[in-house]
Amino acid sequence: MKNARTMRHIANRNRLIIGSSLAALILPATTHAQTAPASANPPGAAEIIVTGSRITASGFNAPTPTTVVSIEQLQQAAQPNLFDSIAQLPALQGSVGTANTRQNGGTSFGNNGLSALNLRGLGSIRTLTLLDGQRVVPAYITGIADVSQFPQLLIKRVDVVTGGASASWGSDAVAGVVNFVTDKTFKGYKANLSGGTSTYGDDQSVLAQAAAGWGLMGDRMHIEVAGEYFRNGGVPGGEVGGAQPNGRPDAYRSGTTSYALGAQPAGSPQFYAYPYNAQTTTLGSVGLITAGPLAGTAFDKSGNPYAFQYGTGCVSGTCVGGQQDNYITTNTIDNPINRVVGYGRIGFDLTPNIEIYATANVSEVRTSNTPIAYPRKPGNLTIQCSNAYLASTTIPALCASKGITSFSYGTANAIMPGKETIYSVRRQYRFVLGTEGSFNIGSTPIKFDAYYQHGTNNVHVDIRNMTLNGRYNAAINAVRDSNGNIVCSSATARAAGCIPINIFSGATISDAAFAWLTGGTGPYQYSTFKEDAASIAFNATPFHNWAGDVSVALGAEWRNEYYKTISDPYGNGVTVDTPNTATYPADPLLSAGGNNWFAGNYHNGSGAFNVREAFLEIGLPLLNSKQIGKIDLSLSGRTAHYSTAGNANTWKVGATWDTPLSGLKLRGVVSRDLRAPNLSELFAAPQTANQPVINRATGGTVQVVSTTLGNPALKPEIAKTIDVGAVYRPDFIPGLSVSFDYYDIRLNQAISTLTNQQVIDLCYNGNTTYCSNVKFTGTLGTSDYPYVISQPFNLASLNMRGFDIEAAYRRNLGKAGMLTLRALATHAISMVSNTGIAGQQIAQLAGNNTETGNGVPKWKIMLQQNWEKGPVSLTLTERIISAGYIDPNAIVCSTTCPASTVQNPTYNFNHIPGAAYLDIGGNYKLGKATQVYFKIDNVFNHRAPPFGGTLLYDPIGRMFRLGVRVAM
């Protein structure tokens, strides 16, 4: 008699055989049932358990749509990170990776380089990412997991649940679940080696992966290990003026500006959007006088003043055309990343039906990126006409003739010898101890699965070449001393070591001056995230009714999450909880209260919460007849108690109907889902960042310090989701599978944070509640600086409606080979966001294709054609994004415009083109063990359009990859 491990290996082999057959037919189209049809399983074969439900009984059909991506599809995608493969699916919209540096590379938030998945565009925080159905320790304070830290070579499939799943899996599963499933019984050896480069010779990468598995002690013990190394050189940002690196096309220089509501000239639009050749009038490449009688005087690289060429159509600090040398495009295009991941699993069969196991996942992910590169000053500097560096120019005489002693000045500050660079290191240590198997109560087999997980993510964020505001302000104010030497004007600054700098010339400042400006160090934030989780679940078919077996799943879970952040004293300030405050240099130019850096003012913080949960699911057959068909009902419920937010309940009711029409199945789900506030929303220390905003009172742009605070009083978000769909596999067209699913998600009590501009506009428009959070007076770099303060709140709502279409067709062409066609499409009918605050736009986000609009395209489509013959296979993939808008609510006009309103603002331009990308890949088998492959992404090298967000469009261009796989 075969022992348990051998039998489990055979069962899993059968799973893979059946799963591969199904995958060849319908993947990555929706997997429409929790398991393969009972008739498809040979006697003794194990069911194929996917993530749509916690019920694992054979023959149970889960009503929640679930897309299953098999190992074959993952290999065809040939991406060095599984994140990039999954993020291409139409249901995944707004996923943030290393190439999305504006959303995932800001200076002041510590989220640099994450690979976080986002279903429906509802946010990564509303997508639950699991590994083998288990939670993963967060890589960031918002609670999201970093896919880069997963053991990717041992992943055998990925389940994407495209519907509310909180009743099954708990908080965060509002938009759905992405579950990475490992091969727990892998035997043998396999490896993967690949390299890639862009058509511009950058973004060069190398990936090396290896895995091995053994059966020991008569196959009662199974051990597997995996390791991988990935290095990507990334793509640096451009320079001031729009020039891009490595021969890439210059930036489009797009920009948007506006009048205050009701302040635009009669008949003119409120907003002006310039897709090409926009130019700011708030700063110069070297420098620009921005206000007063000398406004329009710029400086060249030699320090000579000249008349700035403004261009045409100037509105609130932005023009079209002109000299085009001050546009800033320094954001890193693709973050370089180094990833090292190690994984091990050991399982032992205590009995033929019970296994105990332990897993360890250790990883390190290093990334870096450059944001705006230099401490730009958009017209917010006050310069004395007597500045020593101006003495050799005509400026002092002009000041005297105009009767002024100072002027406003803006500069890109490209004279710094080094760009601001953020270095991030994430080290994850994740350990799981568990057991699974079955036992009998009477004649009823009971399956069980229990585990305990402890995970730690240590995240270090260090910034180099960041300037200190107080020191910078002192260094630019230069005079001559009694010996004729140029020195800092302040005696206090001189005593502190101040070295003057010339911001009226393009000459790079000295290393000594730069070292003083940056303090010889930089901002840092060292965070520790910990998660402990325990779960136990039981599955059984305790009885059957008139229509079939009744299945039950029940269990309990517990989770505790904790974080602590330690930051540098320059940013945090000198407080009792700041370590090493004795080393904080006494400097009268800096504030002991912190916020001294131009950007990256991190603050200390800590917080924790825990949750206890219990769930129950029932699969109840209602009818099974030849005349009417088979109807199954699915009922789920979960109750939870959060230490911060109190009690919360979720539920789901769904049904499937195998109709009398052969091959046609109908399904529907109604669910109540929730997302509890995360550590960031509850306990985040103040996060500060320098950002430009429009002062509605003056119409001009001003640089402010934006501060975001946590809110411990937050309550869970509540979502109501409806999914209704159909699956059709007609007998008269063998190999064809088509599905359609309509979804309606209504999220209430949504946790939201107003943007800086929204807070300012609310105050300007008379909502005095927010005026205390806005201050425009003061001097940046001192304790009295312009600021905007915002906190998350529970007032917002979000309603999203749309549908998914998936189809697959597989045809044997005889001697010509095998052809597989697939199509996946998601259409966003509507996505309405409402802050719940009077005077704010009720935003339509469906069709908002901008960089920072938080919207989704109307259509996202993925088409695939695969041909196989003998050792050769070829795959074509088309990725399509529909055209969109800057603001779908806008009225477009250039003259005779109607009055602009909050809900329907007027724009002169409101179009973002769509995109269609073609990818080509191929494989060739060299015997049974070796396979060589290639992949070309974005074959026609389409670039992202003006205003187009990198969350939607490809910012990198044509990519080439070549690799070899070995499996023995």
From TrEMBL:
InterPro entries hit by this protein: Beta-barrel_TonB, Beta-barrel_TonB_sf, Plug_dom, Plug_dom_sf, Thiosulphate_STrfase_CS, TonB-dep_rcpt-like
Key word Coiled coil present: no
Any Pfam family the entry gives: Plug
Sequence ranges assigned to domain TonB-dependent receptor-like beta-barrel in this UniProt record: 449-939
Family as reported in the entry's similarity comment: Belongs to the TonB-dependent receptor family.
PANTHER family: PTHR47234, SECRETIN_TONB SHORT N-TERMINAL DOMAIN-CONTAINING PROTEIN
Protein name: TonB-dependent receptor
